[in-house]
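**User:** Hello, beginner here. Are you able to go through the protein record under this note? It all follows right here:
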Amino acid sequence: MSWRLPIGGPGPEPVEFLADALAASPARRESLWQELRTADPGTDQKLRVALMQSVPDHSGYNRAVAQKRLRKLLSQHLSPGQRAAAQVRLSELDSASQCQVEVQSLRQRMAAVVEIERRLNGGR
């Protein structure tokens, strides 16, 4: 689906917006980001900004800021569609963050095992 966010007007539902952003090319993501930055800052707009910040491959990508904004938005009154989009994306981001922590831990453990093997092999 192709759409253009009308400045100051309604756009697609938040889940649809997120799906479109995730499927977009990097150039289209950048275009979406630039459009979002100039639109009126209502709740729906703030949600779209947070959702867009959670999507990589454009100049506004910042997963940590997106997570913070989504958490803040979830503490406010949102429509069911807005709340669903924010919760789903935040859950995805939290899972990805947890995976990165686990990968880093595994890399550190692997490096320690390799170092032990080097010492053992060097002692023969």
Summary: The chain is about 70% helix and 0% strand. Confidence is low (pLDDT under 50) at residues 1-9. The helical segments are 14-23, 26-38, 43-53, 63-74, 80-122.
